[in-house]
Amino acid sequence: LPNAPHRTWEERDRSHLLHPFLPDSQQRRVVMVEGEGCVLRDATGREYLDATAGMWLCQVGHGRTEIAEAAARQMSRLEYSTAFWDFTHDRAISLAERLVGLAHPATGRAFFTSGGSEGTETALRMARNFHHRRGAPDRTWVLTRTRAYHGAGYASGELSDFPAYTSGFGPQPGHVHRLTAPYPYAHARSGADGPEDVTEFCLRELEEAIHRIGPHRIAALIGEPVLALGGMVAPPTDYWPRVAELLRAHGILLIMDEVVTAFGRTGSWYSAGQMGVQPDLTVLSKGLTSGYFPLGAVLLTRRIADVLGAGDGFPVGHTYSAHPTGCAVAEANLDIIEREHLLDAAGAIGARLATALAPLEALPLVGEVRQHGLMIGVEVVADKALGRPLPHGTYALADLIRDRTGVLVRGGPRSLTLAPPLVMTPEQADHVGTALFDVLSGHP
Ligand code: PLP
């Protein structure tokens, strides 16, 4: 039998699971079976220190029975009901009120999705549909940025700067224009762009793009307040306010993809306020439930919600939109973040991690260690003077750190990235620093 007990988890996995981004030639599997706080345990009993919070989502740490109990209570009472048409339920109403209440005052309503990709796809539909209904159907172009990640759907995949999603899959939706996202480390070392201030460079590019495409043909710009998959890169402080001002002047909507940055990751409920902007649409997921249930949301300003709610209403929905169990889990998660003051953690544990990681900057392999709250990027370089990345990225290095030290960090094309749970202890933060230092300095 294929699942006979004598077969190992690894063998059974290889027979029956197709993983994203895993070639069949790789035999090895890490079979996780349980977790508590920042520690995960695999099927062999080995422990790992999770400095990535899963996929950058587990704000409150693993194994919180309080959330499991909230899910069980909700499932016993009303496991599922829809929020299509005139149906609704108490959990969706309560969570929408709470999310809107935490956002900037122009925010009016929330629309629920099953995750981040569905959220960015929905925000894109909302932006185009908003203009269409206001008599500007030609506003279809979307501005996106280099190093962005907005999801794995056809539209969200094209918005992402992620060639794997656009090559080999036939035609793309189109009407997407990509601008340079500020990456101060790379910008300072790119001879082509000269010494121009990175914000000036990006703003000039944005202005030129608006002029070339025509402002009356552009629906929105989408961006992450801080690039996540792009290497945990925060822009200079004047970047977002100046971008937002230019967009507003041309009637172009600002979609903030806060799938990673919200719910304490950068020290506040949402990052846009910290960045000095009020987005028209905000996409949320991940930390909304700390990953205990798949759920996402799009927050809309009243101005947009009123247009989309008019007439026959907004004509897009998903079976699992506003899943009652997901909404109950989200509220239990937000309760923990509030009660344990986890918005402060980005500062406190962030500072401890900064100290623990500071010695890395002296190493020949490390170009810089950058940090915004609990989003951390370690730029790994083949050549420190020129800032050239390793030819094959940092994926193998992340595997080596995991295998040697048990610390989980994520590899990428240029950087190692860290985004630990907000409940990481000071001792665990120190351990992350030591583990990375030992491997990156070539200690056996
Ligand atoms: N947006 C950002 C910034 C992300 O990092 C991700 C996923 O990592 C997504 C959107 C897509 O979310 P999901 O994987 O839940 O579809």
Provide a brief overview of the structure:
Belongs to the class-III pyridoxal-phosphate-dependent aminotransferase family. It is built from 15 helices and 15 strands.
Characterization of this structure:
The protein is an alpha/beta fold. It folds into 2 domains: 151 residues, Aspartate Aminotransferase, domain 1, CATH 3.90.1150.10; 273 residues, Type I PLP-dependent aspartate aminotransferase-like (Major domain) (Aspartate Aminotransferase, domain 2). The protein is 36% helix and 17% strand. The strands form 3 sheets. The chain has a 7-stranded mixed sheet, with helices on both faces. It has a 4-stranded mixed sheet with strand order 1-2-3-14. Strand 1 and strand 2 form a beta hairpin. The mean pLDDT is 96. Bound molecules: pyridoxal-5'-phosphate (PLP). This is Aminotransferase class III-fold pyridoxal phosphate-dependent enzyme. GO terms for molecular function: transaminase activity.
Strand arrangement in the largest pleated sheet: 4-10-9-8-7-5-6
Low-confidence residue ranges: none
**CATH topology-level fold name of the largest domain:** Aspartate Aminotransferase, domain 2
Q: What is the count of β-strands? A: 15
> What series of H and E elements makes up the topology?
HEEEHHHEHEHHEHHEHEEEHHHEEEHEEH
| Main structural class | alpha/beta
Measured distance between first and last alpha carbons: 43 Å
Small molecules held by this entry? pyridoxal-5'-phosphate
Q: Assign the CATH architecture of the largest domain.
A: 3-Layer(aba) Sandwich
Mean pLDDT reading: 96
CATH class of the largest domain: Alpha Beta
The general outline is globular
Radius of gyration: 22 Å
Keywords: Aminotransferase, Pyridoxal phosphate, Transferase
Protein name: Aminotransferase class III-fold pyridoxal phosphate-dependent enzyme
Family: Belongs to the class-III pyridoxal-phosphate-dependent aminotransferase family.
Pfam families: Aminotran_3 (PF00202)
